[in-house]
Amino acid sequence: MSNDFTMQLKLIHGFSNKTRYNILHVLKNGEQNVTDLLEKVGGSQSNISQHLACLRDCGLIEKRMEGKYYYYSIATPKIIQLMDVLDETILDFEWTGESIECKHHMV
Predict the structure, then answer these.
(1) C-alpha span between 71 and 65 (Å, rounded)
(2) What residues contact 43, with CB distance under 8 A and at least 6 apart?
(3) Angle value at C-alpha 76, between 57 and 33, nearest 5 degrees
(4) Residue 66 forms beta bridges with which residues?
(5) Contact 26, 37 (CB under 8 A)
(6) C-alpha gyration radius of the chain
(7) For position 90, what pLDDT does the model report?
(8) How confident is the model at residue 107, as a pLDDT?
(9) What count of other Cβ atoms lies within 10 Å of the Cβ of residue 85?
(10) Which SS3 state, helix, strand or coil, does residue 101 take?
(11) How far apart are CA 15 and CA 85, in angstroms?
């Protein structure tokens, strides 16, 4: 096993954007198409589609076609487990206001 962490960082990249993380939270409740995601996440269709492409490239979601629509779902239950661990872990921190954002790395 390589120690360059490329695959781990690719996975983390999928989690590293608010819109993508919001999409993942919506998909935790089951398969959705782009129209459903637009209603629940907001934004434009092209923006959502770009984030879906990134999530697929990072291995976090899958898509299937039914009729003329694509449906998206979380690729493996382990992704939901990772999200649950992240949600539980933040409860251990005492972040307030300014300390939430990493001014050096986050946009």
Answers:
(1) 6
(2) 19
(3) 65
(4) 69
(5) yes
(6) 15
(7) 87
(8) 47
(9) 10
(10) coil
(11) 13
The two three-digit tokens of residue 40, written as one number: 């629940």
The tally of CA atoms less than 13 A away on the side-chain side of residue 96 is 1
Structure tokens at 58: 């990072």
Largest CA distance in the chain: 48
Sign of the alpha-carbon torsion through 64, 67, 69, 73:
negative
Task: Please list the residues that pair with 76 across neighbouring strands.
Answer: none
Q: State the pLDDT at residue 104.
A: 63
Q: What is the mean pLDDT of each run of 10 residues along the chain (107 residues)?
A: 83 94 97 96 96 97 96 97 93 72 60
pTM, two decimal places: 0.85
Alpha-carbon distance 35 to 44, whole Å?
10
Beta strands in the chain (DSSP E): 32-33, 61-66, 69-74
